[in-house]
Every structure is written in structure tokens, then in C-alpha cells.
Amino acid sequence: MDHHDVRLGVKLSYNFNVCEQTLEVSFCLVDKSFTLENSRPIDLALLVQHKLRLTRSKQLLPELAVLENLFDCLFYSSMCKEESDLTRVTVTLINPDNPDPAPPANLVPERWSCIAFDRRIPMTTKSLAKLSKAADPSSTSLAVYFDDKGRLYVWGMIDQAMHYQNFLNYESDMYSEQPGLFQVAVSDIGTLHVFFDYELLATLKQNVLVKRYLDVLTIGPISKMIKKNADFLKVALRTYIDQVHPTEQYTEWEEFLDGLWIQTFSRLLLKIQNYQHGGAILIAPDTIDLDVKYKIHYDRLAQALIAHAKASIDQYVVENRIYSDFKKGRRSVARNTYQKETELFFHKKGTADEIKGAISFIASQSCVDGVILFNESMVANGFGAVLRSKKMPRKIFVSNTSTATPKSLVPHDPKHYGTRHRSMISYCWNHPSALGFVISQDGEIRAFSKIEDKLIMWENIKTQQYKTSRSGRRNQQ
Fold first, then answer.
1. 356 in the Ramachandran plot: left (φ > 0), alpha (ψ -120 to 50) or beta?
2. How many domains, in total, are found in the chain?
3. In the prediction, which pLDDT does 23 show?
4. Interval 73-103: pLDDT, tens
5. In degrees, to the nearest 5, what angle opens at C-alpha 183 toward C-alphas 158 and 50?
6. Is 409 among the domain residues?
7. Residue 293: how many CB atoms within 10 A of its CB?
8. Residue 132's domain spans which residues?
């Protein structure tokens, strides 16, 4: 058991040349933000085609024309409505003749399965809009493929997708291999996300192709501020380890604590994002220049994190003791030890559920216009807050890297942004110790902080946990 596992951001690096007929494209992805404006579905198709070639799959790979048709159809489907609802759907490119070519030796009960239709349905914007009503992306994916003439069709549905979503959203630690060659999720108008297993390859947002999200929560100045805000957790756990588990080294648990808090904060951002209402979070040491409409003092999230961390340490110590006994040749577990381990397991699960409930409680407050206010110990002190700072910098700097190196900063006019963003820019400019996050109605998350004499904004922020495709230990194996 590894008790200091921390979710690290996926760093992608490509260097390739793609030639298809007379079209030549050369991209170079290095450790900096990489987005392409004025992009179209064909640009996404080229990127996916190259990725498929790198996988060296033994399966039949689609031609560029098939991929272009696939992304064109999904792109325009995102603008269609069915019963007044926009199309939200996930599709998986998977061969109906051999949908599961290499199943693992040990199959878990919640593994995916394909349910075939009695006939193939031509893949069109109309058919996708219809089927999307029965294929909630949180639980289902549509199985699509192409015939010998390159024509796309929908041939079935794939279940158990909720476990995939739970892992991406930090709601579960269990993950398994995904079906098919890749998945494409339609989340908004003109917005397509391409996944290879648990790797987010790219996102096409209208005319912008995003190939890497900034991992600001684990790397750079934002990460340092977030981890500093977790001091309440570290102080409590250092004391607990010294008093209850003196043989444990606190330094071995510090990384675990950082990871626990970053995951929790990511879940809060994701929960607010899912409301599609827009919202904002401000972490500030005081309430100067703030008009808080609904003042509260809610420290349950902080206390639940402390309780969960203690339960994690307790369970690890008991499990490690059992493991050591077996290593020494003992063939049975004492009844008291077994009961203790069982009790700790359920207690840890209970604290995890408490964290989930506290996150939902706080996130729902974002649906009231205004800002959710936290202090530096992550106690929620109110919501519906209005930021009253008026002085705004003449320019802000958008960082293309998590670390906000001087070369990565691009100047922007703050007046280009909406009221919610300008309010956060003004407040963080006048209060250097503050850290702000703004979630737009379209789901875009931006972070703001004053670094030295510059107001820095980060966008395209990574909030879900991704893993490089076809790598890592899977829970079926």
C-alpha cells in the first residue's frame, strides 16, 4: 500500500510531422501552454490520427477522412437540440466485430460491456441528437464505427461509464482500461474532448484547439498558495502522528496531505463547473473591500479533511502491522486486529462521504450571484459576496505555463473580460495575498493572483485527474 500517492499532472510532449495528400502540418508540444486559434475539426482529426499511429495498435485504424467526418458530425451535433436540450453525448470508436480484443485475466464486476442494437444506425447529427437523450454521458457511451467505404454508424451502447467519470472527478481511486480506440465527449456548443483511455489528448472549443491544460494546482505559485492554505491540515496531522503514531514519520505523509487538499479543491471547482451557472471563489485573509451578503462560518470541510487524514493513517498502520505479521510467517489475523481494521475501513469511508457532502454544500452556494469566500484555513465565511475594489491594472498577464515564467507571460487588456472577471482582477490587484478563481458559465476556469508587480491570470486549468493512456496499474489486472 502506498500511502503517499499524489496525483501528478500529465505532461505531454510531441514532435511530429504529418503529411496527408497535399496537407502538411508540423506541431511541437513542449512544456508550455499550446493552443491553436482558428482551428477546425480537421485539426483535431490530424492530431488523433498521429496519436493512433503512435499507439501501434494491431486494430484497423481509420483514415483521415473518417476521423474528419467523425469530428465534423460531432461538432455540428453539439449545436443541435432535441426536446429543447442541446446535445451532450460521448462516443467511443470501437469495432463491433471485435469490441474486446485483449480482456484482462481478472474481470471486475463493474467492467464495461457493449450492448448492440439489432441494426446499425447511420451516424448523423439528427441520429446523435435523438440517441443522446438515452445516453447520458455520465453513465453511457455510444459505440460507433465505420464501414469499408468509410461511412460512420452507431451500432450500440456501452455501460458503466459512471466509474470512468468518478475517477476523472476524484470521486474514486479505482480505474480500468477503456473500450475502443478512443472516446470523444461533446460537452457544450462546439466543444469536443478527445480521450485515449485516461489521457485527455486535446479539446476543441469552438475555434480554439487546446492541447495541454495547466496543472497550476500542483506546480507553480498557485500551487504554493494552495498548499500554504493546507497548513491547518498539516499542523493537526503532525500533532496527531506525534501523539498517536510516534513510529510514523510525518515527512512521509506530507505529500499525501498536499495531494488530499489539492484533490478536494479540484472537486469543489468541478462541482461548481457542473452547475453551468458560473461562479467565483476567493481565498483571502480578511474581509476588507468585501460586501458579504450571506455570512456563515462553515468549517466542516476542513474538519472532515483532518478526520479523513487521521483515518487514512490509522488504517495504514493497522494494515502494515497485518502485512508485517504475514511476512514473519504468521498465517492468521487476530480477531481484535481484524475488527479494528474493519472499523477503520468504514470510518475512513464515512469521512470520505463527509468530504463529498461538504463539497456539495459549498458548491451549491455558487448558484447565488457573487463570490464564495474562504479564509486561509479554508473555512467558508460566506457567499454572494461583492468585491468592492475599483482600481484596476492597466494590463494583466496571461501565463502560458503553470510556473508563470517571464517568457510565458502575454499582456492582455483587462477590459476585454466580463464583470465577474474584472471584479476579481481588481480585488487581487489591490490585495496581493488573495487568490481568486472564476468559473464561467461555459465551464472555463481561470485563476488570478498578483505576483510581484504583475496581475497574472491562468486559463485552461487542469482540474480532473488524467493518466497517460495504456500506462499504470489497472484494477483488473
1. alpha
2. 2
3. 33
4. 999 999 998 888 889 999 999 999 999 888 8
5. 145
6. yes
7. 13
8. 14-210
Distance CA 218, CA 402 (A): 9
Tens of pLDDT, residue by residue over 253-285, are 999 999 999 999 999 999 999 898 889 999 998
Kindly give, in sequence order, each residue whose CB lies less than 8 Å from that of residue 219, ignoring residues fewer than 6 positions away.
9, 402, 403
Does 171 lie in the same domain as 97? yes
Specify the DSSP element, H or E, that contains 325. Answer: helix 300-327
3-state secondary structure 447-462: EEEEECCEEEEECCEC
Gap between the Cα atoms of 464 and 477, Å rounded: 24
8-state DSSP, 97: T
**Could you tell me the three cell numbers for 130?**
435523438
Q: Which three cell numbers stand for residue 359?
A: 463539497
Residue labelled with grid coordinates 504554493: 224
Grid coordinates in use for 321?
A: 502491522
206: left (phi over 0), alpha (psi -120 to 50) or beta: left
Cα distance between the two ends of the chain: 16
Q: Report the C-alpha gap between 151 and 146 in whole angstroms.
A: 5
Sign of the dihedral defined by the CA atoms of residues 454, 460, 466, 470, in that order: negative
What span, in angstroms and rounded, lies between the C-alpha atoms of 461 and 66?
31
Sheet of 141-146: strand order equals: 35-36, 208-210, 199-205, 191-196, 182-188, 89-93, 141-146, 152-158, 114-122
Q: How many CB atoms lie within 10 A of CB 362?
A: 22
User: According to the 3-state scheme, what is the secondary structure of 283-318?
Assistant: ECCCCCCEEEEEEEEECHHHHHHHHHHHHHHHHHHH
What's the rounded Cα separation, in Å, for the pair 111 and 47? 29
DSSP state of 363: H
- Out of 62-66, 330-334, 431-435, pick the least confident: 330-334
Residue type, 462: K
Give the C-alpha separation, 355 to 368, whole Å.
Answer: 22
Q: Out of 154, 185, 210, pick the residue that ends a domain.
A: 210
Q: Are 93 and 182 in contact (CB under 8 A)?
A: yes
Q: Nearest 10 degrees: CA dihedral of 262, 446, 36, 30?
A: -40
CB 29 within 8 A of CB 12: yes
Instruction: Assign 205 to helix, strand or coil.
Output: strand
The span from the CA of 193 to the CA of 357, in Å, is 28
Burial class (CB in 10 A: 0-12, 13-18, 19+), 469: buried
Residue 70 domain-assigned (yes or no):
yes
| Together in a domain, 272 and 144 | no
**Helix residue spans in 328-418 (DSSP H):** 335-364
Bridge partners of 185?
90, 193
Which pTM value belongs to this model?
A: 0.82
